[in-house]
Amino acid sequence: MNRASAFLCFVFRKGWNPVLDFRMETFLTVCQCMNFTRASEKLNITQPAVSQHIRFLEKHYNTKLFRYEGKKLKLTGAGEILRNASLTMKHDELSIQDEMLKADDEKELRFGATRTVGDALMGQILEEYLRKYPEAKIHMEVDNTRDLLQRLDQGEIDFALVEGFFKKSEYESQVYSVENYIAVCSPDYQFSEDPVSVENLFRERLLLRESGSGTREVLERYLNSKNLSTEDFRKVMEVGSLQTIKELTKAGCGITFLYEVAVRRELAEGVLKRIPLRDFHISHEFAFIWRRGSIYADRYRELFRRFSSAGI
Stretch 235-254: mean pLDDT, rounded? Predict the structure, then answer.
């Protein structure tokens, strides 16, 4: 079966009708905005038209797609299922269009990597990959986990290597590696008090990645589990660049929390050192992910195998 036929089988198996495309676009926009008025403005149609499209879909699928909790619009369980399936089908349709446009050429790899993965691992992975597949066409985007998930949902990239958290109900994944997460500082950093626990670091300046970063979310989840937060640090400096955070930490401008793989060279060279905190033993997966239910799942698994064999 060719990919076009597989796609048609897939969408009809899901109860999808191509005639509903523009109504599904309305549905996905409401899902994104969670507000009928903002969705109508974004689509440049009237609010009654948005409501009509949603009612049509609810009648077609014989179920409610949205509900209100107070004044807040929420997806129902059925709405969440339709949203996930629709995003995957939209992604696959864009991939099919891309393949048809490039039918006579090798398909380009369009993927994303979070900043830690991009800075610490992808150079070596892609170097080895290109040695094995010298004709490969590659487009890699580096961003935080949240923004890469959005690009994946919109079909701008096909898969991603992320260090952050993601909904396993929406994405299929393969574990690339499991990495230690540690606190680091400069070798001659002067602490306000003996750094035995995380609480002893609250008087230091915390150098923190931007909101949406997987590196930051690991720390936030750990602190939340202890009924703490980043706001407990006396001084916090938010920096969107991993390299800048490392340079500031080496200069003694503060302390930070990063994956050990991201500072492996600096630790070996002695320009950074690990802060030996008691009861702080965290590791987290670096994952290769794609939209759950994609018709290209076998292709992504093969690409994962190739990336893994080219990695460290």
Answer: 96
